[in-house]
Amino acid sequence: MTPKTPHLSRRQLLRLASAGLLGSSASGWIENLAARAAADPKRRRSCILLWMTGGPSQIDTFDPKPGHANNGPFKPIATSVPGISFGEHLPKLAQQMKDMAVIRSMSTKEGDHGRATFNLRTGYQPTGPIRYPALGSLVSKELENDQAELPGFISISPYRAFNPAAFSSGFLGPQYAPLIVGERAVIGGPDGGKLSLKVEDVNPPSEINRERADARLDLMEVMSKDFLAGHPGVSPLSHQDAYVRAVKLMRSKAVKAFELDDEPAAVRDAYGRNAFGNGCLLARRLVERGVPFVEVTLSATDGSMAFGWDTHQKNFDAVAKLCGTLDPAWSSLMNDLRTRGLLDSTLIVWMGEFGRTPKINKDAGRDHFPNAWSTVLAGGGIKGGQVIGDTGADGMTVKDRPVSVPDLLSTVCKAIGIDPAKQNMSDVGRPIRIVDPKATPIKEVLA
Amino acid sequence: MNDRRFLTGAVLLVLASVPALAPAADVAGKGLDAVASSRDAKALAQTIDRRLAAKWAEAKIVPVGPADDAEYLRRVCLDLVGKLPSASEARDFLDDRSPDKRAKLVERLLASPAYMARATEIWRQLLLPEADTDGQARFTSGPFEAWLRKKVAEEAGYDAIVREILTAKLGGRNANPYSTRAEPSPVPFYFAKDGKPENLAAGTARVFLGIRLECAQCHNHPFAKWKREEFWSFAAFFAGVQRQGTDDALGSIREVAGRRELAIPGTERIVKAVHLDGSEPAWKTRSEGRQVLSDWITSDKNPYFAKAAVNRVWSRFFGIGLVEPVDDMGEDNEPIIPELLDEMSRQFITHNYDLKYLIRAITATRAYGLTSTVKQKESSAPPMFSAMPVRGLSPGQLFDSLVQATGFREGGGNGYSMDLAGAKGRFLELFANRNERPTEAQTSILQALTLMNGQIVSGATSLEAGDTLSAVAEAPYLDTSGRIEELFLAALTRRPRPEELSYLSAYVDRGGPTGDKSKALADVFWAILNGPEFKHNH
């Protein structure tokens, strides 16, 4: 029996919206929904954000300072591009430099985890009543395929406590909210591959077989009919829409993407059998299935606190461990995407909320440092093999080519074929551009 | 609770409260006694009815008909105590023939402990909205909530509550946001604003006056009359507030006595504290900025203070304010019926800024008692409160209603834990709506999956674990239609309509796909709990 899932779906919302009957919707999400109908149905590019919770140390990763006390104990290693070196714990990535652009001149203003997390992830400052959407929501709105079985924004093992709003779809509404798998708690939690990255509650309890599940949906549809007819409001329609999409997800073939056990053991091992390694592998499987925006958070190594890059003490032990997780996972991701012909259409962004002080503190740690730090763009849409900006011999200041948060995000947009100046209607009835109009994309990075 | 006890209890409570409380206005900050408050509230409700009726006539709008008892009961329970009534409460109310049962119901709910929790939540969301969205504000909000609970229990007036916030003593044992020895106190209001004068100014204007000043912080506001200099002059009332700690971590908050001026960042300009209406502060020797500001804000003559509160309370009960957005009541944004907001604000002031008085009035209006069922097809909210707007349940209302309807019990955990531990904590986090309007509440895929397949509803619809379901399925005195009616009363606060009953009875009697009647009954309960009617306050 074919399930009669509720029919009041997006199509009806669109029909209502285009008829102009919803003119007074204040959140703007219906208008945004309508605008999407005009979008090109053919999928173009994908973006994978590797999010480094806590703020990673730039000197120990992508901006070493050989010969200066600020460099600390890590030795620089050569990359596949002459003249560019990384910290010694990223040997596999060093071989991928031809497909990477390292931005060493990030110059931002926020040194507080919560506000900086919001700033980097949305492109805006967390002030006032406007609920700015996360980058993933903005991108998925632009690139989502209406026929897709999977949501357009999937967030893998995030740690949201620094600023939950920075992980939300804000004024774009929950249809652009991330589908979250493997959420992290503050301390400990399972790792070593034990953190489940499956969609929670995607399967009915075992005693409910398909026939009974269909019967239940049928009952629900019959019983909802009168209520929906008499209550044509936005909220009941959104309820219907979510159920239609949830049932589609439950019954999709694409949900198999989350079955990492389908991968050969050698592949699992190459990525690393930990939350981040598994997450990068899952990201590849999701991009293969057309998901436009996937983010994978590296917030901890086994047993550590969930903001692992916040290395105020014992920075070098922690960064060595984190790089030991980052290096194989990220480089395997690039290799796999390249083999599958997907690297050219997939942009990989590596960033945290800020960098860390060049000066090493008394606890062998590094503190928060937004003045001069690094992010990395890799893969599709960019010109690899180059470094942008310069932080001098000691790493204390940006000597050349300062890059702001909007500059970075507008470059990301351009690289995946989105117009950063495009406007969305916000919750205060004012249109807001995807990226602040003051932004200048980094031209030399774009392919 | 059976019919008679329920009603007698309500009557007794009303009578008992007469001698216990001092009459009316001579005790500032105390609620009026219930009888006088009800009488005056009824008069205000009639004024509201007249104003709205005149507006409808003028705009040629025909309002919908009244809500039936079931719809009213569900609505008022969700609004006043944050959850559905039990099936037996619902049955008792529906079968009660007394003409004033709605007013009695409101009194009974207002006197219940659940109302205190709900009123605390309503005020907390209004006064400290950051705790819904910002992890640090939530983490440090404990003393604020404890203090607010005390205020609600004392029936403190809204003006007194705001005065205590604005003049809270900074320093001492409550100065540190992470102190484990903190006493109940409004100081976390200052933590949520990072102890910064500019954030305190913007938050104070938004919450207490319904005015958005944030944009004027950095540049002259393109739409409204406040300019950058006026913003910083207003912020100067908080000039003495000092924040310790670094950018990384908020430290203690203290106050330097006697500061009344502030430098506009990035400029050489120093501005003195000036009220938003341009008037000079009434300084006395050694008076502090916050004290003077508090007197001005909470003055009966302040043109915004009472109106902003009344508008927000109204929007709590209708999902939409008389002015929208509720925090943007500037001069270019007129309420739909200015005289109505004026009149309600005047009465709110006269009645000592008493929340219960406003609630009694609003719940007695014709508009609040209208049905939410409309004939038109528009998705937009009905114009001018000519029908009750449909509102999504808040995360707390949804969880508590699920618990009420299904008998779900959980071992531990609470909604404000940082680690999102426990069933309730995870549920509230997943359903958090982060300040969206209830009339535009939206559902995500994960929320739908949780309700379809997750622990709570799966347990509730299992014959072994579901308290309500197993009791209903096994009750020897019920036939199939009796069982279905019981599930409807428990979850939808109404009896099934005849066509629903015959359709569902046939399904249950045939045993659904499994041929088992009890399992088929579980399917019906699942469909009720997942449907849009359950998920809305309508």
In round numbers, the mean pLDDT of chain B is: 85
Multimeric organization: heterodimer
Counted up, domains of chain B total: 3
Order of helices and strands of chain A: HHEEEHEHHEEHHHHEHEEEEEHEE
Distance between the termini of chain A: 51 Å
Structural class of chain B: mainly alpha
Spatial ordering of strands, largest sheet of chain A: 6-5-7-1-8-11-4-12
Q: Low-confidence parts of chain A, pLDDT < 50 over ≥5 residues?
A: 1-43
| Total of DSSP H or I helical runs spanning 4+ residues of chain A | 11
How would you sum up the major sheet of chain B? 2 strands, antiparallel
Examine the secondary-structure arrangement and name the CATH architecture of the largest domain in chain A.
Answer: 3-Layer(aba) Sandwich
* Biggest interface: A-B, 80 and 80 residues
Describe the 3D structure.
The complex is a heterodimer of chains A (447) and B (538). By secondary structure, chain A is an alpha/beta fold. Chain A folds into two domains: 1-38 and 206-258, no CATH class; 47-198 and 260-445, Alkaline Phosphatase, subunit A. Chain A has helices at 10-18, 29-37, 91-94, 113-122, 135-143, 210-230, 234-250, 265-271, 275-288, 315-339, 405-415; strands at 46-52, 76-78, 85-87, 100-106, 153-156, 179-181, 293-298, 346-352, 355-356, 368-369, 373-379, 386-388, 423-425, 431-433. In chain A, the strands form four sheets. An eight-stranded mixed beta sheet of chain A has the order 6-5-7-1-8-11-4-12, sandwiched between helices. Chain A is globular. Chain B is mostly helical and 538 residues long. Chain B has three domains: 3-111 and 310-389, no CATH class; 193-297, no CATH class; 392-537, no CATH class. Chain B is 51% helix and 4% strand. Chain B has 25 helices and six strands. Chain B has helices at 3-20, 34-58, 69-81, 87-95, 101-110, 113-127, 135-139, 142-153, 158-166, 188-192, 197-209, 214-218, 228-235, 289-297, 305-318, 338-350, 355-363, 395-406, 422-431, 445-453, 455-460, 467-474, 480-492, 498-510, 517-530; strands at 241-245, 250-255, 261-263, 270-272, 391-392, 536-537. In chain B, the strands form three sheets. In chain B, strands 1-2 form a two-stranded antiparallel ribbon. Chain B has a two-stranded antiparallel sheet with strand order 3-4. Chain B has a two-stranded antiparallel sheet with strand order 5-6. In chain B, a hairpin with a 6-residue loop joins strand 3 and strand 4 (270-272). In chain B, helix 11 (197-209) crosses helix 13, helix 15 (305-318) crosses helix 16 and helix 23 (480-492) crosses helix 24 (498-510). Chain B is globular and about 80 Å long. Chain B starts with a helix and ends with a strand. The model of chain B is unreliable at 1-31 and 411-421 (pLDDT under 50). The chains are: A alpha/beta (447), B mainly alpha (538). At the A-B interface, helix 6 and helix 7 of A face helix 12, strand 5, helix 20, helix 24 and helix 25 of B.
